[in-house]
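Ticket reopened. Same input as before:
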Amino acid sequence: MGIRVLFFATLADVAGVHEITLESAGLSDVNSVFLRSTRDFPALQAHRDSILFAVNSEFARSDTPVHDGDEVALFPPVSGG
Amino acid sequence: MYRLVREPIDIEAMQHSLIRSEDGAVVIFLGTVRNNARGRKVLFLEYEAYEKMALKKLEEVGTRAKELYPITGISIVHRLGRLEHRDCSVAILVTAAHRAPALDACRFAIDTLKKTVPIWKKEFYEDGECWIEGVE
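Engineering reply: fixed in the latest deploy. New output:
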């Protein structure tokens, strides 16, 4: 199944894609998902301090656990309204 | 009613489905597209959302507003895609027996939406474009 990783707004532009799927082996928490993503898209690193995370559509922290089949989203501070 | 739409927001339909006979007040907040931001001329906007999470968060805003204020109903609709000057990007309707809680709840709802709902705005200028990050 793997872990689906979604990018939005600036981060989708930086990565050049809206989503990827990662092998879940070795991925324990949100931070490990972020670090694995930066292997493919090193430019994400520059946004580390402002990135917000969500796991399965709920706000998450970098130490929130992830499991096979989860959907992890990375996005900048929101600006709707 | 909590929705994300790609066409103009039908405010009359929201009003029609929300107002009940016991209500004495309906407060409507509309966010519209401004032709300038931070001293720059804005040509148009584009909104993008993490739709699944945004719908969930819109509903949470409404649920929380109903817990905090004695209101009878709330509807929130946000538009996505390309919007031109004066277009309505977000509509929040709140009904209550009396005006005070409806006004307060509406203010709470737009302020909370701007902080918690995963939607992003991109501004387009004469000489470029830029994703806006965070609440203005």
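Residues 2-127 of chain B form a domain with the Aldehyde Oxidoreductase; domain 3 fold (CATH 3.90.1170.40). Residues 13 and 82 of chain B are 22 Å apart (CA to CA). Please confirm and we'll close it.
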